[in-house]
Write a structure and sequence with these properties.
The protein is mainly beta. The chain is built from two helices and 27 strands.
C-alpha cells in the first residue's frame, strides 16, 4: 500500500516507513506488548512529521507505519524546528520553539499548534537576551513544562532557559545558570532539558567543553532544578551529577523521563543513556551504530521501551568508511580520518526501539525520509531531532 504522496512528502525530517538494518538484537517474548501512537517528529524544514504507528516489540520491524502526514508551522528559513512538546494537560495542543533566528523578525519563534486542526494557535518572536548573544548559531532544542508554563531551552552561548506563560506565550523570564547554585562551573556547549512527569522538577543537561562553546570533551553535567522556582525566574538546585561519554563524539541533546518517573532517557549523539531519575546515576550506556547519531529518547506509556530518534547516514555506494565524529551537533557534520564526502551518503532520519529491561535495541530501524525523498525525486538530506507522541 502506497502511503507517501506529494501532499505528505517531508522535506527535512523523519516519520517512519522504509526499513533499514540497524539492529543490535531481537526482543524474545512472544507476548510482547503492542502500542499505537501518533508520533510528531521535528525537522529542519519548518514542519513536523505526523506518523501514525503501531509498535510491536516482537516484530522484526517493531515500529510499523500506518499513515503519514505533516504539520506545518512555517518554512525552513523561518521555522526550522527541533522541539516537540505536547501539553501535559491538553493532549491536542503541542508547544514548540525554533532552532534558528528568523532574520526577518530578529529572533527565534515560540508557539503552539492545535493537533486536531494542524493550525498554529500562537506564534511569538523571542529576541535573544544580551547575555546569550555570544553565539546564536543554534537556538531552541530541548524544552520542559509545568501546568501553566513552557520552558524552551537554548543551545546558544551563553545558554538560557526561557519561561513562557502557556496561556498567551508571554515570556516572563530568561534564566541563566551562571552565578547561581546550579552554575555548571565549567566551559560548555549546549543546554538541554526536560520536566519530570509530575512537573515539579526540571532536569538541565550541559555538555562540558574544552572552551566556551568549544569542543565537547565527553562529560555531561546534570542539574536537577525546582520547577516551581523556575516559573518565577529563580534557580533552586535539588541535585547535580555527571555522566561520562566519549571525547569528541558524545554530545547530549534532548531527553525525556519515563512515565513512572523512575528513569530518564538522554540522547548523546554516539550514545544513548538511561539514568536513574532519583540519584542521577547511570543505568544504561548504549552505543549507537557507527553511522548513527541519537537525538531524542522517549519512553512508551508503561516505561518498558524507548523510541529513539537517529540521524543515520545511508551510504550511497554501499561502502563503509570509518567515521570520527568531531562535532555531532544539530547541524554540522565534521569528520577526521577517512572523510565521507557529499556524494558518499544521504542523511536519513530513523526511529529505533530499545528494550529497557533487556538493555538492547530490538528489531530493525524504521525510516521514511529517504522513501519520501526518493518518491519525489529529491536529493536532499533529511534532518530530524526531537519527538513527542500521543499514545492510544
Amino acid at each position: 500500500m502506497k502511503i507517501i504522496s506529494k501532499k505528505t512528502c517531508l522535506y527535512a525530517l523523519v516519520a517512519a516507513g522504509a526499513l533499514t538494518m540497524g539492529t543490535l538484537g531481537f526482543q524474545s517474548s512472544a507476548q510482547a506488548e503492542s502500542y499505537n501512537a501518533e508520533v510528531y517528529v521535528a525537522g529542519m524544514g519548518g514542519h513536523f512529521a505526523k506518523a501514525t504507528v503501531e509498535i510491536d516489540p516482537s516484530a522484526a520491524a517493531p515500529i510499523k507505519l500506518k499513515a503519514l502526514d505533516k504539520v506545518d508551522i512555517g518554512d525552513a528559513a523561518t521555522h526550522p524546528v527541533h522541539d516537540a512538546r505536547i501539553d501535559a494537560n491538553k493532549r491536542d495542543l503541542m508547544f514548540w520553539s525554533t532552532y534558528k533566528i528568523d532574520k526577518e523578525v530578529g529572533g527565534p519563534h515560540v508557539g503552539a499548534t492545535d493537533l486536531k486542526s494542524g493550525e498554529k494557535v500562537m506564534d511569538v518572536v523571542a529576541p535573544v537576551p544580551e547575555k546569550g548573544q555570544g553565539n546564536t548559531k543554534s537556538m531552541y532544542c530541548g524544552s520542559g513544562q509545568t501546568k501553566d508554563f513552557f520552558f524552551p531551552i537554548t543551545m546558544s552561548s551563553k545558554g538560557y532557559i526561557d519561561v513562557f506563560q502557556k496561556s498567551d506565550m508571554k515570556r516572563v523570564a530568561s534564566v541563566f545558570l551562571e552565578g547561581t547554585e546550579a552554575d555548571p562551573g565549567v566551559p560548555y556547549k549546549f543546554y538541554h532539558g526536560v520536566n519530570s512527569p509530575d512537573m515539579t522538577k526540571m532536569l538541565i543537561s550541559v555538555n562540558e567543553a574544552d572552551s566556551d562553546h568549544g569542543k565537547p570533551i565527553g562529560k555531561i553535567h546534570l542539574m536537577l532544578l525546582d520547577a516551581q522556582a523556575l516559573e518565577k525566574g529563580e534557580v533552586k538546585l535539588i541535585k547535580r551529577a555527571a555522566i561520562p561519554g566519549n571525547a569528541g563524539k558524545t554530545v547530549n541533546f534532548r531527553s525525556t523521563y519515563s512515565p513512572d518517573g523512575k528513569l530518564i532517557g538522554l540522547s548523546g549523539g554516539d550514545t544513548m543513556y538511561i539514568v536513574d531519575a532519583e540519584t542521577l546515576e547511570l543505568v544504561v550506556r548504549q552505543p549507537m551504530g557507527e553511522l548513527e547519531e541519537n537525538h531524542d529518547a522517549m519512553f512508551t506509556p508503561d516505561s518498558k521501551y524507548v523510541i529513539a530518534t537517529s540521524r543515520t547516514k545511508t551510504l550511497n555506494n554501499g561502502n563503509f568508511k570509518k567515521i570520527s565524529r568531531e562535532a555531532p551537533n544539530c547541524e554540522d557534520e565534521v569528520f577526521t580520518g577517512d572523510k565521507l564526502g557529499a556524494d558518499d551518503f544521504t542523511m536519513d532520519g530513523q526511529l529505533k526501539l530499545f528494550d529497557v529491561a533487556a538493555k538492547k535495541f530490538v528489531g530493525q530501524s524504521t525510516s521514511t525520509c529517504l522513501a519520501c525523498h526518493n518518491e519525489e525525486g529529491l536529493e536532499t538530506h533529511a534532518v530530524l531531532c526531537g519527538l513527542d507522541a500521543n499514545f492510544q
